[in-house]
Design a protein that fits this description.
Radius of gyration of chain B: 13 Å
Oligomer: heterodimer
Shape of chain A: globular
Structural class of chain A: mainly beta
Order of helices and strands of chain A: EEEEEEEEEEE
Number of helices of chain A: 0
Number of helices of chain B: 0
Structural class of chain B: mainly beta
Radius of gyration of chain A: 13 Å
Largest sheet of chain A: 6 strands, mixed
Number of strands of chain B: 11
Largest interface: A-B, 32 and 32 residues
Chain lengths: 113, 115
């Protein structure tokens, strides 16, 4: 039962343009959402998060938007840089569920010069 | 470098065997988590320990077990291995319980290949 879905397995974007990664979830109990970034041969690293009481959170070039009614969130990267080429995972948790994160399958982003 | 150390990095074994994966959390972190990533899939939560006690369990098979020791390092034991157990196993740690969206710090993983 995949409660967090990333329907785009890959995304190619030109350097300097905007990257938009999408994520959908089915569990209405989720109230924290996180994005992790993963380079080959490394573990995922935390990128940005948002709680369900907000609809937007920004950190430098990265912005996450949350639409609770649609059970949808997105990650915007502006401007995209070659170093952003990685796999991006969306994850969600219910606040009282300890550390049981539900991850999506990931989106491979390739930023071309 | 996340500060989370996993050993070994690679493990090749045969069906029916038993293996142990080891994880040392970041200094000061009390929680250790184990995740499994199979081909083209997201990370699947297996189990969480907090300060030596099991706190949360995912879809962990009965053939798998884990523990967290007094020095807070953790081991994941996989027994009666099957071909389908081949995957990348990640350990992560956090300062607290992981609640309220606390971020996790991941190790670089152990790639298990069951032949």
């Amino acid at each position: 039962d995949q409660q967090v879905k990333q329907n785009s397995p890959s995304l190619s974007v030109q350097e300097g343009r905007i990257s938009i990664l999408n994520c959908d979830y089915t569990n209405s109990m989720f109230d924290y959402f996180l994005w992790y970034k993963k380079y080959p041969a490394e573990g995922p690293t935390f990128l940005i998060s948002i709680s369900s009481i907000k609809d937007k959170n920004e950190d430098g070039r990265f912005t996450v938007f949350l639409n609770k009614s649609a059970k949808h969130l997105s990650l915007h990267i502006v401007p995209s840089q070659p170093g952003d080429s990685a796999v991006y995972f969306c994850a969600a948790s219910a606040g009282d569920s300890w550390g049981k994160l539900q991850f999506g399958a990931g989106t491979q982003v390739v930023v071309t010069p | 470098d996340s500060g989370v150390t996993q050993t070994p990095k690679h493990l090749i074994t045969a069906t029916g065997q038993r293996v142990t994966l080891r994880c040392s959390p970041r200094s000061g972190d009390l929680s250790v988590y184990w995740y499994q990533q199979s081909l083209d899939q997201g990370l699947q939560f297996l189990i969480q320990y907090y300060n030596g006690e099991e706190r949360a369990k995912g879809n962990i098979l009965e053939r798998f077990s884990a523990q967290q020791f007094p020095d807070l390092h953790s081991e994941l034991n996989l027994s009666s291995l099957e071909l389908g157990d081949s995957a990348l196993y990640f350990c992560a740690s956090s300062v607290g319980t992981g609640a309220l969206g606390e971020k996790l710090f991941f190790g670089s993983g152990t790639q298990l290949s069951v032949l």
